[in-house]
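quick one before i forget lol
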Amino acid sequence: MPGFSGINVVGSEMKKRPTFSQLSAAVLLALSQWAVAGSALADDKADVAADPKKTSNMQTVTVTTGTHSSERTASTSLAPVDVLSAEALKSTGATDVATALSRLEPSLNFPLYAGSDASGSQRPMSMRGLSPDLVLVLVDGKRYHTPSYINTSGQGYGTAPVDFQTLPLSAVDHIEVLRDGAAALYGSDAIAGVVNVVLKKGAKGGALDFTGGQYSAGDGRKYLGSANFGLPLGDKGWVRFDAEKGYDGRISRSQPNIFAPEIGSPGQGSTPSVQHKSFNLNGSYNITSNLELYFMAVNTWRDSVAKMNYRYPYLRYRDYSSRQIGSPANGYVGYPEWALYPQGYNPALENKTQDNELVLGLRGEIGDGWRWDVGANYGRNKLSMYTVGSINRAYYQDFGTNPNGGDFYDGTFRNKQQVLTADITKDFSLSWLPNSVTLAFGAQYLRETYSLDAGDVASYYATTTRGTAPNSGVPQAGAQGYSGYSPQSAGDWGRHSVAGYVSLETNLTDKLGVSLAGRHEKYSDFGRTTNGALSLRYDFTDNFALRGSVSSGFKAPSLAQSYYSVVVSTSYTVEQGVPVAGLYNGGIFPVTNALAQTLGARPLKPEKSNNYSLGMVWSPIDNLNLTLDVYQIDISDRITLSGSIPTVSASYPGYSSYIQNILAQHGDYASYASVQYMMNGFDTRTRGADLVADYDYAFANGGNLRSTLSFNVTGNKVTGYNSIPPSLAAVQAQFPNVPLTSRLYSRSLIKGVYEHGGPNSKLVLNENYSQGPWSFNATLTRYGAVTRYADAGHAGRTTTPLYPNGLNTTFDQRYGARWLLDLAATYNHDRWSFTLGADNVFNTYPEKNSYYNNQTNQMPYPTMSPFGFFGAYVYGKVGYHW
């Protein structure tokens, strides 16, 4: 949010010592006065770079996120910004930025999804229960690039947000988290907030660290080695280098399929195994006393292998009413590749990704205090995909071979951005105002390109005849598990935008602070947008203040959302609520595709938002800080991936013939049994609150205890639906009994993702005690409940064409709240540090899936669990620092 950011510093110390009874009374008083959960802490006496053992010489913290003023601190802040020091991030025991953030920020969630496509290796982070791509990510204040792949599971459904796992934790100095809309300053994506990752600076200091561990079940072994150090560039500059290399082993809690228990557990629903490495640098050089050259390069490589659904040598119907396995006489379905894979096969998807972010700029000061910054940054994500250990049934049937031993190159995605920015700032003293006014204005040019290269012919080859397997219902095409991309899907696309902004910040009186900002942008593909923001803060006393803000924002549809396509095969579909065995191809089409347009796809529009927040900052006693922020975020034209629209149905043969005639006009698309596409589907309202209580206690023996209690509660509601697309309405009118519109807005989409896909609350209690060479960290986290909703028709209806007697909620399931405890102990000796820790020490799991959701017993736990379903993790760390 433009303005003066309220600051919560995590990882620093205070020196005075109130009693525990004073702390308890103050916290109880605050909680009794505000029954909702609330915000970030104001701690203007802390220094994010301070030695955690010191309790004196505290300095005032300033931030750069959401403000252009060089003098704004917590004492004049208008919006909540949490400043998370490297020490606090390290104390979480995490080895990556996103996990560390999620353990310190109650409004952030970073689920450890098990996924068989790239969604499992590019994990999205959600803020305030909103889509991950509604958070803007900056690195040293510069816009970071987004990936080229669309997530197709969980809260990241239909989004291509920043992949936090490409950011090296060892290179981070601190992170600033702005929990308010900031599109008036930064443009697209900053609806839920802004995360600014600030890298380490200067030539002094360095570290070598190694960590390793595994889960208590014996899998998921991990290791990570890192090095970070600085070197001087003469006496005018410096450069810092950072390198990491690590491995994350596969984790699976899969059980044997009840259809084929003799085969054992195939590992369905596991996390991918990932090898990763990065090399990064940043630096600065003073060309003159008023002219500085700065640069940065972040480079990450990752190779992940995810297991797909197991393909058995036969399938059998499952009778969900009697819960019995069908007999061979009425249920066996055989496939010709049994000769190649007598015991079936478990195809895997290998993703090779490369991320690069390069920044080069000049900044300085001219004239009477005019500060300026001109920079250019280039970001790229490249994702190459391979289906391993599989078969293309159509290719095998037509040519009698399985090329390359069943390994297929599927294609390569690329997403690139080039950004040019110019920012100018000046502090003016006006005779009729008691404080100076900060004027900031600037411009941005953004160029984005997106491309898809086709895979090998064998990866996408489709037969022109029907599949030979009984009950399959569709032609068989493409590599099983994940089909390759054909030349028909390949292409290159691009767009550009130009933006300008202006902001004013000042204190109108010694007690009243205000900021005002506006931004105008023009995109080449969807037009213009103008956004503004107003923030206010009033200090009633030195210890109590109220703050509030109103802003508008927008999120431009990404090129990936407009042009991404994919084919995925599955081993069954659902007809009238009953699983039907067979192999089925499901397709995600770009909105420009003719078939998708026939079924309702339209060009995407930007999402638009209105943000409202009101908060308080209170320090009732020394070293105790309380903050509370309540908020409402209204978003229109939400961009989402539609529900799955059937293109073939045994129950409606007339409809099937109609769609098949259209499919026949689209070449290899004739193999699709269902279609999805991106759309502007509906409007939402998000309401919630953040509460944080932060307290420091210094003991007489030299020990220091820092306690932080933080809590977030968020509720999301779909408030309205966009009109049914005319083309889909025409098809629906021709076939009124086919559940097309209810599939477009499925319950699993509306309720399962956008309303209840994430936890409705999250509480984090952290205790950090240090004395002499020892430090101990304990974090108790409570994740609220999540609910799975089945595709039983349009949310809010009591009857649907698919379920005329009412919604079928048999497959709905609620997973209750869970408490997790993380513990760690560190011993420091000279320049060495040694840590032993355990996450989820009580080996807590979510509730098990019901009979209807465990996928024939192979998925005992929900993939949507906000903390995963893998149990306790034990690790050790060794570090050398100078």
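fyi The mean pLDDT is 82.
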